[in-house]
Amino acid sequence: MSAVTHEPGSRRMVLTASGLPLLIGLTVVLFGLHIAVGAKHLPLATVLEAIVNRDATVFDHMIIWDLRLPRALIALTVGAALSVAGALMQGVTRNPLADPGLLGLMAGASFAVVIVSFFFGPAALYWLPWIAALGALVTALVVYFIAHWAPGGPTPLTLTLSGAAISAFLGAIISIAHLLNEDSFDNLRIWLSGSLAGRDISMLYVTGPWIAVALIAGLALARQVTALAMGDDVAKGLGVRTGPLKLQLLGVVVVLTACSVTLAGPMGFVGLVIPHIARLFVGSDYRWIVPYSAVIGAAYLLGVDIIARVAIPPREISTGIITAMVGAPVFIQLVRMRAK
């Protein structure tokens, strides 16, 4: 009787576990295509040969190692980081519309980088993640306190409205700073639109270890996020210390968001859309939502960046514009579903 009772759950667990390797395989294929596609199309065999047996005298290998491989690695990293950040935020706030962009963290990170550049000039590469993290953290606290003072407290609706208002306000200040000194901000103009073009691999060397630590921490905390998503009272009843857990999750989300903004600028809707796609496969268990979001997010940003590069040749569209064009209709559909 017991075996019969647990059979559907066991079958679902097997299907969920087997789906992850398939998605990883798809991501590897997209990674190869991302490197192969461009102004000069390269065969996948050449891509594989360059990665396995690099020859610095071969021009195609130089293109791959100096230009395309860094961009593909950054797309992979940013997609995974923003998706996991969005999944954790949706779990801890119990808000299906939460993501680093909508709740203001991305705007805060961008604002901090822009303001430091405005007053002190371009910051050293090493300091950029810390500056962005400070901006994201302060913005998250401001959004929370504004929502806390609103009638009804920090509900999903008040958090979303507070985040949208703060994002718009910071965006206006960034625009004013840009108008006051267009020459100094010319280098930031493309970055602020969310772009993977011309990113320096050394930025990944600085931010990569922090993102790796934050992703591991997110995976480790995922089981407790499942309990937290059922409500604070339920989580406490299951033995979860909700206060310390929320602080740890805030730290993870801030690091993932700040490092992603440092690498590629504000990339909207990735953290909002991808966790919902992950739930279609795995349900509401964050032990699976978090790793699925990481893999799907990485594959998604690789695919979107391919579109950004080939949509209107020879020009290139900022990747952030494509993510917004794809994410906006999904966001509208989510709002409609919540309104029903």
TrEMBL record:
Swiss-Prot/TrEMBL keywords: Cell membrane, Membrane, Transmembrane, Transmembrane helix, Transport
Protein's UniProt keywords contain NAD: no
Subcellular location: Cell membrane
Membrane topology annotation: Multi-pass membrane protein
Highest taxon in the source lineage: Bacteria
Pfam families for the chain: FecCD
InterPro entries xrefs: ABC_BtuC-like (IPR037294), ABC_transptr_permease_BtuC (IPR000522)
Transmembrane regions listed in the UniProt entry: 20-39, 72-89, 101-120, 127-147, 159-180, 201-222, 249-274, 286-311, 317-335
Family per record: Belongs to the binding-protein-dependent transport system permease family. FecCD subfamily.
Protein name from the UniProt record: Iron ABC transporter permease
Organism: Pelagibacterium nitratireducens
Lineage, broadest ranks: Bacteria, Pseudomonadati, Pseudomonadota, Alphaproteobacteria, Hyphomicrobiales
